[in-house]
Amino acid sequence: MSAHAYKKKNPVWDWLTTVDHKKIGILYLASGAFFFLIGGLEAILLRVQLLYPEFDFVGAETFNQLLTMHGTTMIFLAAMPLIFGFMNAIVPLQIGARDVAFPFVNSLGFWLFTAGGILLNLGWFLGGAPDAGWTGYAPLSTTSPGNGVDFYVLGLQISGIGTLIGGINFLVTIINMRAPGMTFMRMPLFTWSSFITSGLILFAFPALTIGLALLMFDRLFGSQFFAAEAGGNPIIYEHLFWIFGHPEVYILVLPAFGMFSEIIATFARKRLFGYSAMVFATALIGFLGFMVWVHHMFTVGLGPIANSIFAVATMLIAVPTGVKIFNWLFTMWGGKVSFPTANLFAVGFIPSFVLGGMTGVMLSVPPADYQYHDSYFVVAHFHYVIVGGVVFGLFAGMYYWWPKIFGTVLNEFLGKLHFWLFFIGFHLTFFPMHFLGLMGMPRRVYTYLSGQSLDEANFAATMGAFLMGLATIIMVWNIIQTSVKGKKAGNDPWDGRTLEWAISSPAPEYNFAQTPLVRGLDAWWLEKRAGNTQMVAAEPLDDIHMPDSSILPVLLSLGLFTAALSAIYSNWVLAIGGLALAALSMILRSVIDYHGYHIHKEDLPAEGREDK
Amino acid sequence: MKSNEAMTKLPANPERATLEGKNKFLGFWFFLGGETVLFASLFGVYLGLRNATNGGVTANELFELPLVFIATMLLLTSSLTSVFATMALKTNHFKRMIGWFVVTGLLGLGFLGLEIYEFNHYVHEYGHTIKSSAWGSAFYTLVGTHGAHVFMGISWITLLIIRNLRRGMDLYTAPKFYLFALYWHFIDVVWIFIFTVVYLMGKVG
Hints:
The complex is a heterodimer.
Chain A: H1 11-17, H2 21-49, H3 59-94, H4 103-122, H5 140-143, H6 148-176, H7 189-221, H8 234-268, H9 275-288, H10 304-332, H11 341-363, H12 366-372, H13 376-406, E1 408-409, H14 412-438, H15 455-485, E2 487-488, H16 523-529, E3 544-546, H17 552-568, H18 572-591, E4 597-599
Antiparallel strand pairs in A: 1-2, 3-4
Chain B: H1 19-49, H2 59-62, H3 65-90, H4 94-126, H5 134-164, H6 174-204
């Protein structure tokens, strides 16, 4: 493992062993997109089942599985990796770093996530997918027959470990790896929100780890945590799940807020309005996010004091969120606003998300919540914040950063078609659900009766889902076409403001030939205004140290995957074998010295050098 | 192998002298932050279920403080010896550091032996198992998770000592040993809470 020269590698082996944050970002984006399509397909099947009253398309049992897997897939296997994909691809570039703090851990995080995601979906082929809802409440989950919920528990556990170590990696990267001059209050908003999201991951995911572990013990080893008849208490699971679950909502939406802040400022050709207020609002939302989990449990009966405290804390979150909404509006105010697809999604997000926020405040009032609880009103609310916030953010980010990640520009005509179909389909699906909920339609039920005024709104919702499906097909077509014969992107196609636009598209393996010197907020924009064509270097041109690639993350994830799958079928010999493989990989990682290698300065392309 | 240790000059705080060391130092502190939430969740579960004995043996009948006291002393002493090891690390005395870490590992092993004896005793003498009551589930999960951490720590330091015995102290090996010491202190702190919340409150609470 000593230093070795840079050489061409087998591409498959290269992707399996890479520790380059840009490649890991692409891996995250690709697998997240794959699971997004699966989760979307599940949603469309759900909507077809609800097309007509008492319709029999997939039936009750499959409906429960589709419902559980749609929620679980979209949150854990689509939104999370897509966000990690953008964090990997963009954050190190935005802070002027050559790499993340722990390249090996980064790769391990991705492969653990993938192993967990595959395990979770194996249920479809092995006798039934999980069917206890994405929340997996006990005792429904502890008594669910078959192995479905075991796939849920162990799949999420493995992918959760991956997410946790990914979060630690980004915390340390952002604290320790910033370029000279890149102070905290000069960091782009996407980096800021990634930083706060990583902190939320660190403190939220262990609660889920415990909740899932206890669920696993109850199911596999006969423990009595949630068995009321043996003195157990199922409410404990609800607490653990939501202590994780509510911060998770902010884990998802804060990076999207960060993306909008960058995109809206770039396309308004103005500095972000109220930068420090934005940073403070992001941190405050992250902090308050841990104080509100009981608002998911108002109807449990924890008493008026508990409900009131958590209700007030919930309402408080509207304040920093409102600060953000107004800052985005004021950023556009008086700007020279243009509307490429990225900005369409960003601007379309604002009214959509405000609607979701309004219903959120409505839901935060406990007496009213007794009416809304477990109805389609809640379904409407969280789809407005998650699709209207997170998914719009991911689409906006995709159109915005695609040139930097892949070096080509997505087709704008198809992009705009994608936006309008998706935007109309989204509102057509979820707006009527508010009224369905107010009229009393319960969520998670596979059908409804006719003659209750529920027919038209359900039909409209399904039509909207078809429109979103069509929009997604157009997006996929756009991606395929762009990958095959896309227009080459320049280094700075949007006249950007932040550091990633100062280097070539796609970024070279080492990101920055010379670490840049950051001289203010919107570092690259400042240099352009000063008439410079590249960043001022903070160091002389020298050999660049690169980390060693490694197959161990794949082996470790394979070991845990094998162990979990064997444990579900009580094959303990094979389970111990899997754990042994994981342990061996950890031991090898500790014992082998990874010194990395150097790219010599003579081998750097001329464009990366500054002429002296 | 460097026979004359005083000859090698290392900067102050060798565990944080390189960027890699700094990253590991900070990353490990964050990891311990996550571990804190992990154990806090388990303590919450335990507090919620500690009286749910399902008609079986209670904490007051089950626990014998002398045994727990010896286990506690072993673990607390091991924390002290790992401090001695860290001091040796900072003053660049490699052999002394290894010696103290060996003592730390042995004390940890003694603790683990007592815990295995204790669990075995409870299961066979009292029929107190992970299945017998919700309290049993919570007890074995909380104390067992801590025990698994001790086992992990012993395996870790054993591996570190074997791998680095011939290499001596440098800026590459110092962070590795330092992080283990951090981890070991954390395990100790968790045990103090377990001793209080599980055993003392079980006896008098």
